[in-house]
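Chain A, query sequence.
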Amino acid sequence: MVILSFSDLGLIRYFQLKNEHNRLLTKIDDLKIHRDALQIEKKLLEDDMDYIERIAREKFRMVKPGEKVFRVKDNRTVPSTN
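Chain A, predicted structure.
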């Protein structure tokens, strides 16, 4: 690639654009990884009943009929350092 630069501003602008291009390529790669993870989760939510049950229990605190839920209260305190 041949670049004709008639001033330092042309060269500076070239490097700015090159950095921006590299930053955008990195962002595209990150977004592709995120998209792939979302596609995997979508597939699990469509087909995997064990995954759906785990999500329901963890995120929505759901239980099966007849299950008992026990709450554990921790009364311990952290000693203060004065």
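The mean pLDDT is 87. Residues 8-60 form one domain.
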